[in-house]
Amino acid sequence: MFGYKSSIKQTNDGPNLEALQDAVAWVYHVVRTRLLLHFGQKSDYKDPLSVPEPASIKVLMAQVQEATALDTPGKLMVLMALMPHIQADFYDRLVAGVIPEAGDFPQFGGIRGNHHRGFIPTGETILFVLAGDSLPDRVKYFWLLDEDHPLRIQGICWVNAPEPGDPIPSGRITLAPEWVEYFTQGHLGTPRFSMQFPAQRITTEMDWENLILPAYTLQQVRELEIWLQHHQVIWEDWGMKKFLRPGYRALFHGPPGTGKTLTATLIGKHTGREVFRVDLSMVLSKFIGETEKNLGALFDRAASKGWILFFDEADALFGKRTQVRDAHDKYANQEVSYLLQRVEMHDGLVILASNQKNNIDDAFLRRFQQVIHFPLPKQNERLKLWEQSIPKALTPEPGLNLDLISQQYELSGATILNVVQYACLRAIDRQDQVLRLEDLTEGVRREFGKENKLA
Question: Using CA atoms in the order 311, 314, 316, 322, what is the torsion angle rounded to 10 degrees?
């Protein structure tokens, strides 16, 4: 369209290549126009935003547009952030083509990465391209850097916080990795597990019939599904938004292995939501302020995504505040207060799981919409768990009575699965397909041994 030839090679990897090539050319000519105008050189356009936007960009930006209703400056910021991901020397070649001996050019902003040797745009870069030296225009476009800009709220693209003492526009423009994948591969990926997103997506092949819970517990779980499916009706159509805080909070408490994680995963599976289990080992830090920073980054990425955040063994993060005896207690209590604030303001479903309800700070408990108990299964429930856990390929030996075993041993569902797996391994080792009582009994003994119990 513009006569600029990008270095992207034609492949068969996805449907967005033509639009991506047009986007590279459009960004090139928008930025080049600003540089030409700034240095008093001849330009084909009177200002950068008069460079015609290819129609194909509408296709490329469709999903972003749907989420944020972007204007042209917003689209430009996203695509400018994308350029170093697909052409490492994009900005270096562009600047050199206009001003071969430019030297230091602070108005253009930009930084070099730790390992990436090419130019990476900053907030200063986008402000310069859009506004040049015009103070009114710079103030106008400062909105792109704002904490409340839709691109940041949706976790798509944002300007990083600057180094302490540096101007706000000096932070680099960051495009979320999953959106880089969207533009280059044609599909939106799952956030990568990292310090910036310390959570992993969890899924299951099980279904509700595999989850054996008391009727009252299942009813409470069902209410979480109802909220996920219909909360917009209550908020928007019924006018409750001004009275209710965003999001929904639930506590799952009960002994280990009683189905808390499986329940969270099944809720996501049946409501079309992704479920992310937060890795507390990456969130918690001994350094003052780091825990809050790590958790804040997680909630920022999860905002407005509809994801379910699942905090397993949540006592470590959301435990009771203590009486202040020293500076350590003071900062520990500040952490809990910060977490309370972030959880309360999150706009999605947050599930905390704990083995002991009493370990959770009372301030959290008052703010949960649901507190759901997952008890150890009763005898009839344990029998169902035994029956559904044993593979059909195994034949119980004569006299093996699962009803009697379920009466004799008080086990959780996860423990029963461990015992059955042990019995399966024993059968394979014998090269037969017989489920034997002695194997089940030994498996139970081993599980009880983990908890210093006698079988």
Answer: 130
pLDDT tens per residue, range 191-213: 777 776 788 899 999 999 999 99
| Residue-wise pLDDT tens digits, 345-382 | 888 999 999 888 887 777 777 888 999 999 999 999 99
CA 332/CA 57 separation, integer angstroms: 48
Predicted pLDDT of residue 87: 93
Pairing assessment for the beta strands 199-201 and 308-311 based on DSSP bridges: unpaired
CB atoms within 10 A of CB 4: 15
Contact 86, 8 (CB under 8 A): yes
CB 258 within 8 A of CB 375: yes
Distance from C-alpha of 55 to C-alpha of 113, rounded to nearest angstrom: 33
Question: How does pLDDT run across 240-261, given as a tens digit for each residue?
Answer: 888 888 889 999 999 999 999 9
CB 261 within 8 Å of CB 417: no
How big is the chain, counted in residues? Answer: 455
